[in-house]
Structures are given as C-alpha cells and as structure tokens.
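This protein record is not my work; I was only asked to verify it. The record follows directly below this note.
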Amino acid sequence: MQVWAGCRTQAIFSDFQSQSQLQENAIFCEVADISQLFHIMRQAERCPNVTIKLTKNAARRPALRVSMQGVRPHLDISHDVPVRVLSELEVRDISAPPLESEVVQIVLPCLAELSKFVDKVRSTSCDRMTFTVRDNERADGAAATSCTLVVLAECFLASFALKYSSVQKCEREGENDADFDGEGDGNGGDKPKHRDDTSMAYASV
C-alpha cells in the first residue's frame, strides 16, 4: 500500500521554526525507522512539553531529537531518531499520487482509535486490509456531504471490521471556485474555513 498523508503544521506544533534554502524554508527528511518514531511519540502523548529538533547525534549523523520535559519531577528524556536529509533533486520527485475524479477525499476520524485497531489487527497476522468509502444518501437527493468508512481486516480464521457511519468529505481543490466571491485570504464569503486540526490521507493499493 502506498500512502500520501499531510496535516497542517499548527495541528502538531504550537511553535515552529525552520530555515533552509528551499522554498518556504522547507526541510525534507527520510525517517530510517518509522516504528521507532511512532513509539517515541506515544510516550510523549501525556508529556506537557515536547520539543522536536533536527540536529546531529553522537555519530554526527542527522537525527530528529525528541525531548520530553516534565515527564517526572526533575526528569527530562531525549530520544534521537536517525533521518536522512533529502537533496533538492530528490524533493522534486516527491508529489501526491494523481487522483481520479471519482476518488473520494475524506477527513480521517479519530486517529488514535484507528491506530489501536491497526495495532491489534497486526498481531493476528491478517493478510488483507480493505478501506471502503461510500457516500451517505440524503433524503432530499442532494449531493452527499458525509460518507461511511469501513476498515475490514481478514485472516484465515477470522475477520475484523471498524465502521464509521458519518465521515466528513473534503472539498476537492477548485470545486467551488466558480461560486466563490470572497476576497482577501479566502476565508470570506461562504467558503468554509480550513480546520487546523484536520488530517487528510490518500491511499492506493
């Protein structure tokens, strides 16, 4: 499965600083062990103050240093996650996969619940996992604004399912441009504002 995911910076960081020679001071990194990063971030969930910094480890290699302050009184914890900083040439080849017009874009439900389901399914050695999204029909016949998302995992002896009955659909880029008369930063008129805590993901098998 190939997955392209993105979220707004404000949804993760309360304070963010970045300097580079790329456009918008962007820095692109390849994480050597994504499971290690997930494990560390789970530890940081209840920490009142977490800092993530791109630095160099003891071996002078690039790393993401995750520092947790206030875990316990007078105890601070830091973890280094090895990364590889991508060159500008490599960055040019990174782009979201093309999406057909019939592909539905949705706002993912509670990521914590979805992550727990995936972790439990992983221990059962399921050989297939299917994500199905269907529009919810409206009584007035108007276009659907929500969908039903079903995550189905199957193995030889059993199957497991997680269902969300009302998942918000994302507005496709350029969908309502013709009807939008707002000015300025695009938050005027009737155009809905983007939520900073929204996470979107696109997956293809």
Q: What stands out?
A: Residues 63 and 101 are 39 Å apart (CA to CA).
